[in-house]
Design brief:
The structure holds three protein chains of three kinds. By secondary structure, chain A is of the alpha/beta class. Chain A contains six helices and seven strands, in the order βααβββαβααββα. Chain A has one domain: Rossmann fold (3-Layer(aba) Sandwich). In chain A, the strands form two sheets. Chain A has a five-stranded parallel β-sheet with strand order 2-1-3-5-7, sandwiched between helices. Chain A has a two-stranded antiparallel ribbon with strand order 4-6. In chain B, β3 and β4 form a beta hairpin. Chain B is an alpha/beta fold. The chains are: A alpha/beta, B alpha/beta, C alpha+beta. The complex binds flavin mononucleotide, iron/sulfur cluster (3 copies) and FE2/S2 (inorganic) cluster (2 copies).
């Protein structure tokens, strides 16, 4: 049985996924060990059941993020917070300083105060997901098994973590393997 | 000033006393309800009713039963009356009652268990002497202990007497006072200092305040004896700025003692000199911690520093410094007068003498009490305190303030001494005693104390500065019913870490209220916890278990 | 000076009387994590990362302020100590706003290095996201309070090496803040001599040279050691 792998992209810049693609030939090795059942790079609409491993990029910023995260946690054995935004909140969480637990402040600042032509807060039910009051790292919302910090984590560090996991070991990040920023 | 002069002052003062003494409490508690107006009215009324020649209306310090105040005591023909909840307009009635006849004011019972079970050493003169007249203090034998020490004892003998008494520090930790004095006495150095710690920052505590306001000379005398014993010639009395009445009475007391040669150069015509200066603290709780207090006295930012070196070796400006609490010093003259053995006869094996407590909270009779060490907690809260009001029952008693713990009602038979309280995860502390009834939520109590520590952390060391914030946030999350079992585990882990790694006593004891309520009232925490649908086991067993073999 | 014999992590070591546990361990090649310690200025024992276990002593003591004594048995790296150290670091990261990805000190930061050394791959305590400002009023230097760990190294070098007394701590608890002069803009400071020692001393990206961008701010500790050795040993060489 191949391992059912998923990767998701929450509030982040996709840099972690870019780094994932930098795995180069390891991707081929990986393809032999896993089924990629859900990812921004494959065309699957719904997060499937019975996922073994999910790499989560990005912080939890809006209600869509939170909704899928809850689904992911319920359907996945092992979660990895993938990259600094998922692990610490990182740059997306800098908006919290405009008022912790106050998304309205942020919207005002971004779309009204800084607007040059048509100041208006974008709205659209079912299209524009409402912001959460506070941006949070993934583990503040659901339990997370493992962490891979880095902005983005380099391909070699991704490889090391995934390889350890596939060989049935709890990953340990030591020396060069552990890095923020 | 010599012994004869002292006795002469005492005799003259006693001789000038009038037949009837009307004692008006003018400590902070009663002052807040117009005790000053009451005293003025009593004086006017005595004059109007023609009793001026027989009646002395005396300003006195706290009588302890502050919850029933303002209090007025009357000594007449060897009998003592107590009037409670006195109002300024009651003066005519009180004065006319001196001539026989009824008084419209509520009569207090001086034989009430609240008084009867007390034993007064530290507060012996509270409610009796006028704190603003040194003659009053001298008339009841004040400064005789200092004279005795200076003229008949070697400094080492004074230390020995204090050691023999078994007195332990009343500031918080109960360190043996004689041992501390001996260490300072032996520390090399030409210049040494005495510091009296009157910072008293525990919420709800007013023991030291009351002693300073009611009987400032007992503290000054204790400090002077200590100075002689350890070889110091300068003392500092550190009092928080929130105690203006204590400060002004101390200023008066120091001035009067200097005028009579009981402070200053060549006391009792001996080579011994001792000066005391007041230092006013800006009301930071942490400035009660001895190293922070000394930094503050030196004019620096009041933050603690690691010990060792202890103040006894290196204190103020690097000199050996003896620092004791107000109440500790207030015990000294009695020990010198009556002997260490007498003192050691009071209390339990390891906790000697008496302790003053501020009895507050959900209790019928609140106020200041001084009780012998070892008295069962039940006697204090049920007999003296009269139990919880409004037909409720007592749930727990908090001792030791923000560093202490909550003792549940089924341990009320515990004797009040250092060891027994520590065994229950609380501490004697400086003497705060807050009674809680069955309507109290213990998690809220823990949160209250944690918030206090968080606000009062000096910010120097990380565990206390940032740890109290996180512990408070977790408690808040729990009380808002948003926390899970994982949050509670995090809280417990932090308690352990902050306790063991903080720099000073504030951080080291900040987790105590949480630890102790968790120990006895864990269910109250657990009832607030929420299910954890997105917790560890949510998606099934993880791919590589967390504790996989290395 | 009398020598003291003691063991550190089981290793028999002789140390000079008056030396600290930290000095002694360092000389013996045993590394104890430190943050508020800075060679050349007095120690304050504030960060608590250097705490060690001493047999027979109930309390954990900071290695930087504890003097060696005959027969001491010291443990510097027990599981308990490692756990406490990691917790202390987590508290620091949650206390202010550390966004390493956009920090001038990224890659040259003592706080990062400490986190790595203790295996801290995430912070379990909720981030507090406080609002702190950045002071860029000084001609040469900037101060970003978001990244300050309140180690007071800047304050100590400013007072005790430079002698300017510009930097200080105001406020208490979590609201403590490094200030210049009487809490005014650094650029308006009359006492600052612009020597830059505080910037050299800072372990994080809180104090920086203007113009440095992400990852560019390397704090030149050697210069400070150079001055201290010159003062203490009257030699114009950097300490080894
Ligand atoms: C946070 C903190 C606050 C303290 N506050 C007081 C205080 O208000 N009054 C006091 O006498 N001791 C206080 N102490 C205890 C003092 O550090 C010191 O132990 C005491 O004054 C010594 O006197 P003693 O031996 O007579 O008790 C405090 C300690 C800590 C850690
Ligand atoms: S100071 Fe250090 S830990 Fe903080 S953001 Fe900068 S690099 Fe990261
Ligand atoms: S640069 Fe200014 S603030 Fe910094 S150490 Fe020098 S004098 Fe002090
Ligand atoms: S500015 Fe830098 S050196 Fe100063 S206290 Fe903050 S972290 Fe320490
Ligand atoms: S203040 Fe008046 S009796 Fe205590
Ligand atoms: S380095 Fe010793 S306490 Fe900070």
């Amino acid at each position: 049985m191949k391992i059912r792998l998923a990767t998701v992209w929450l509030g982040g810049c996709a840099g972690c996924h870019m780094s994932f693609l930098d795995l180069d030939e390891f991707l081929i090795e990986l393809a032999e060990a896993v089924d990629l059942v859900y990812s921004p790079v494959v065309d699957v609409k719904d997060y499937p059941e019975n996922v073994d491993l999910c790499l989560i990029e990005g912080a939890v910023c809006n209600e869509d993020n939170l909704e899928i995260l809850h689904k992911i946690r319920a359907r996945t054995k092992t979660l990895v917070a993938f990259g600094d935004c998922a692990v610490t909140g990182n740059v997306p969480a800098m908006r919290n300083q405009f008022g912790i637990d106050n998304a309205e402040n942020v919207l005002q600042r971004a779309y009204i105060e800084s607007a040059q032509n048509h100041p208006a807060v974008p709205k659209g039910d079912g299209i524009v997901p409402p912001l959460l009051e506070r941006v949070r790292p993934v583990h503040e919302m659901v339990y997370v098994e493992y962490f891979l910090p880095g902005c983005p984590p380099s391909a070699s560090r991704i490889k090391s973590l995934v390889a350890q996991l596939l060989s049935g070991h709890a990953p340990k990040l030591e020396g060069e393997q552990l890095k923020f920023g | 000033m010599q012994l004869d002069d002292l006795i002469a002052i005492a005799e003259k003062h006693k001789g000038s006393r009038k037949k009837i003494i009307v004692r008006t409490c003018m400590s902070a508690g009663c002052m807040s309800s117009q005790a000053d107006v009451i005293k003025k009215n009593l004086e006017t009324e005595a004059r109007l009713q023609g009793l001026e020649a027989d009646v002395e209306v005396r300003r006195v310090g706290c009588m302890g039963f502050c919850g029933q105040g303002p209090l007025v005591g009357v000594d007449q023909n060897g009998e003592h009356n107590l009037w409670e909840f006195v109002k300024p307009e009651d003066a005519p009635s009180i004065i006319s009652a001196l001539k026989g006849g009824a008084c419209r004011v509520q009569r207090g019972d001086p034989k009430h268990p609240f008084f009867a079970k007390q034993m007064h050493i530290v507060r012996a003169n509270g409610g009796i002497v006028d704190p603003e007249r040194i003659e009053d203090y001298i008339a009841i034998g004040g400064y005789l202990a200092l004279h005795h020490a200076l003229t008949e004892l070697q400094p080492a003998q004074v230390v020995e007497e204090v050691t023999k008494s078994g007195l332990r520090g009343r500031g918080d930790a109960g360190f043996p006072t004689g041992l501390k004095w001996g260490t300072v006495a032996k520390s090399p150095g030409a210049k040494k200092y005495i510091v009296c710690n009157g910072d008293e920052g525990d919420p709800g505590a007013f023991m030291d305040r009351s002693v300073l306001e009611s009987d400032p000379h007992i503290v000054l005398e204790g400090m002077a004896i200590a100075a002689y014993a350890v070889g110091a010639d300068q003392g500092y009395l550190y009092v928080r700025a929130e105690y203006p009445l204590a400060i002004s009475r101390l200023q008066i007391a120091i001035k009067q003692a200097k005028q009579l040669g009981l402070l200053g150069a060549g006391i009792f015509e001996s080579p011994f000199s001792f000066n005391v200066d007041i230092r006013i603290g800006a009301g930071a709780f942490v400035c009660g911690e001895e190293t922070a207090l000394m930094a503050s006295v030196e004019g620096k930012r009041g933050t603690p520093r690691p010990r060792p070196p202890f103040p006894a070796e290196s204190g103020l400006w690097g000199c050996p410094t003896l620092i004791n609490n107000v109440e500790t010093f207030a015990n000294i003259s009695a020990i010198i007068n009556r002997g260490g053995d007498w003192y050691a006869g009071i209390g339990t094996e390891k906790s000697k003498g008496t302790k003053v407590f501020a009895l507050t909270g959900k209790i019928k009779n609140n106020g200041l009490i001084e009780v012998p060490m070892g008295i069962p907690l039940r006697q204090i809260v049920e007999e003296m305190g009269g139990g919880a009001p409004d037909g409720r029952s007592i749930k727990s008693v908090q001792t030791g303030g923000p560093s202490g713990g909550c003792i549940p009602a089924n341990y009320l038979d515990t004797p009040v001494d250092y060891e027994s309280l520590t065994k229950l995860g609380s501490i004697m502390g400086s003497g705060g005693m807050v009674v809680m009834d069955d309507s109290t939520n213990m998690v809220e109590i823990a949160k209250f104390y944690m918030e206090f520590c968080m606000e009062e952390s000096c910010g120097k060391c990380i565990p206390c500065r940032a740890g109290t914030v996180q512990m408070f946030n977790l408690l808040e999350k729990i009380t808002r019913r948003q926390a899970t079992a994982r949050d509670l585990a995090k809280l417990e882990e932090l308690c352990d870490m902050v306790k063991n790694t903080s720099l000073c006593g504030l951080g080291q004891t900040a987790p105590n209220p949480v630890i102790s309520t968790l120990k006895f009232f864990r269910k109250e925490y657990e009832e607030l916890l929420q299910p954890d649908p997105f917790g560890p086991a949510a998606g099934g067993a993880p791919l590589a278990p967390e504790r996989v073999t290395k | 000076m009398a020598a003291k014999t003691l063991t550190i992590d089981g290793k028999l070591i002789s140390a000079e009387e008056g030396a600290t546990v930290l000095q002694t361990a360092t000389e013996a090649g045993i590394k104890i994590p430190t943050l508020c310690h800075l060679a050349g200025v007095y120690d304050v024992g504030a960060c608590r990362l250097c705490i060690v276990e001493i047999t027979g002593v109930a309390k954990l003591l900071p290695a930087c302020t504890t003097k060696v004594a005959e027969g001491m048995e010291i443990q510097t790296n027990s599981e308990r100590l490692r756990k406490y150290r990691r917790l202390i670091l987590e508290l620091l990261f949650a206390e202010r706003n550390h966004v390493c990805a956009v920090c001038v000190s990224n890659g040259h930061c003592e706080l990062q290095t400490l986190a790595y050394s203790q295996g801290m791959e995430h912070v379990r305590y909720d981030y507090t996201f406080p609002k702190w400002g950045v002071d860029t009023t000084h001609r040469l230097f900037g101060m970003d309070h978001n990244r300050c760990v309140l180690c007071t190294r800047c304050v100590r070098v400013c007072w005790h090496i430079e002698g300017a007394g510009t930097k200080n701590v105001a406020g208490r608890g979590g609201k403590s803040k490094i200030i210049t002069d009487l809490n005014q803009a650094w650029g308006d400071s009359v006492s600052c001599t612009e020597c830059g020692k505080c910037v050299m001393a800072c372990p994080t990206g809180a104090l920086f040279q203007k113009g440095s961008t992400v990852g560019e701010m390397e704090h030149d500790r050697d210069k400070l050691e150079f001055i201290t050795t010159a003062r203490e040993k009257k030699q114009w060489v950097a300490a080894d």
